[in-house]
Amino acid sequence: MSALVRSPEMRNPEAILQRLDWTVIRRLDGLLQGDYRTLFRGFGLDLAELREYQVGDDVRYIDWNVTARMQAPYIRQYNEDREVSAWFLLDLSPSVDFGTVNTLKRNQLVDFVGVLARLLTRHGNRVGAILYGGAVQGVVPDRNGKAQVLHLIDTLLEQPRLNRTPPTDLAILLNASLRILRRRSLVFLISDFISRPGWDRPLGMLTQRHEVVAIRLFDPREIELPDIGPVFMEDAETGEQIYLDTHDRGFRKRFIEAAKRREWELRSAFSRAGVDALSLSTEDDLIKEIVRFATLRKQRSIVARSVAKSSVRR
Q1: Is the pLDDT of residue 4 over 50?
Q2: 62 — phi, psi (to 5°)?
Q3: What pLDDT, on a 0 to 100 scale, did the predictor assign at position 300?
Q4: Which DSSP letter does residue 62 get?
Q5: In which region does residue 239 sit, left (phi positive, over 0), alpha (psi from -120 to 50) or beta (all else)?
Q6: Nearest-angstrom CA–CA distance, 90 and 206
Q7: 96 and 191 Cβ atoms separated by less than 8 Å
Q8: What's the rounded Cα separation, in Å, for the pair 155 and 131?
Q9: What stretch of H or E contains 271?
Q10: pLDDT averaged over the chain?
Q11: CB burial string 291-309: b at 16+ within 10 A, e below
Q12: How far does CA 220 lie from the centroid of its chain?
């Protein structure tokens, strides 16, 4: 169950940010021990990890010792040593307005953006956003400071709930970001990834230029249907309605199998693009998930440092 309490006054950006400051960010400061940089890596002075070379990478960062040993080119990634420019690529298509128990996927999106934007701007970094809902709906230029966080939250709250849009195509959002983002940036792609296929290719291109983290939003009922009898379901984007009998065990089994296939396809797409992904449920505790994600990335960095030192000694 989420630790965040929702109420009608949450339409107020100041109230949202105050809630996040008191219920999330203060606890994260303690749990992360001030090391907010464990949430991202970049090019700087301190080695963070090694990864296989991709077309477009700077050849100056190739680690020739590891390349010789692995018989494939590897490059070094470094912790960021300067101001970060962070961008949120936000999917606000109709399916993001789904939720069944505690909250909507959109609410988790707003909270995540608020928390990360606040953490980043408190350290002098800049944050911006590109909004998508069937097409690119707007761009919030990257700036720093608390006022920018409030502006970002307010912009999200002002976005209308969409319906009867063309089927979501995340490739439109990703291709737009390739044109808009000129400076190397930290990019958070936040979506439920219910989209037309083909978005993994521009995601891979984006990863070659920027550090990208995918935040996958979902509701548990999208993975496993409860046995609640006959129901009508409506496609949030097309409006198409279908009649389902959730008493049917065979149907529920096929639903679960289809959900598992989609999970595998998503993991494969993220892996091909070289993107770390955080799955965030509408029932998850945002604090625990961010800390867990940061811990996993830190452990990977420790392993990478060990491998790099070993390769140098050899």
Answers
A1: no
A2: -70, 135
A3: 64
A4: B
A5: left
A6: 15
A7: yes
A8: 9
A9: helix 249-273
A10: 80
A11: bebbeebbeebeebeebbe
A12: 18
- Which one has a higher pLDDT value, 235 or 113? 113
For residues 150 and 313, the model is more confident at 150
Buried-exposed string 212-221: b where 16+ CB fall within 10 A, e elsewhere: bbbbbbbbee
Structure tokens at 11: 């339409």
DSSP letter at 243? E
Domain residue extents for the chain: 8-313
In angstroms, the CA 181 to CA 203 distance is 13
- Nearest-CA neighbor of 167 among 68, 238, 239, 225? 238
pLDDT confidence of residue 45 = 36
pLDDT band at 142 (very low <50, low <70, confident <90, very high): very high
pLDDT, greater one: 25 or 79: 25
Q: Token digits for 235? A: 């496609």
Cα angle 109-219-112, degrees, rounded to a multiple of 5: 20
What is the pairing mode between strands 186-191 and 136-143?
A: unpaired
Report which secondary-structure segment, H or E, holds 231. strand 230-234
pLDDT of residue 49: 62
Write out the H or E segment, with its range, that includes residue 309: helix 286-313
**DSSP-derived 3-state class of residue 206:** helix
**In the prediction, which pLDDT does 150 show?**
96
User: Has this prediction a pTM greater than 0.90?
Assistant: no
Residue 187 in contact with residue 86, Cβ under 8 Å? yes
CA dist 137 and 162 (Å) reads 11
Pairing relation of β-strands 136-143 and 74-80? unpaired
List beta partners, residue 213. 188, 276
- Tokens at 228, concatenated: 């609640």
Angle between helices 200-209 and 249-273 (to 10 degrees): 30
The CATH class of 8-313 is: alpha beta
Give mean pLDDT, residues 159-181.
Answer: 88
- The rounded distance, in Å, linking the Cα atoms of 207 and 214 is 11
Q: pLDDT higher for 233 or 173?
A: 173
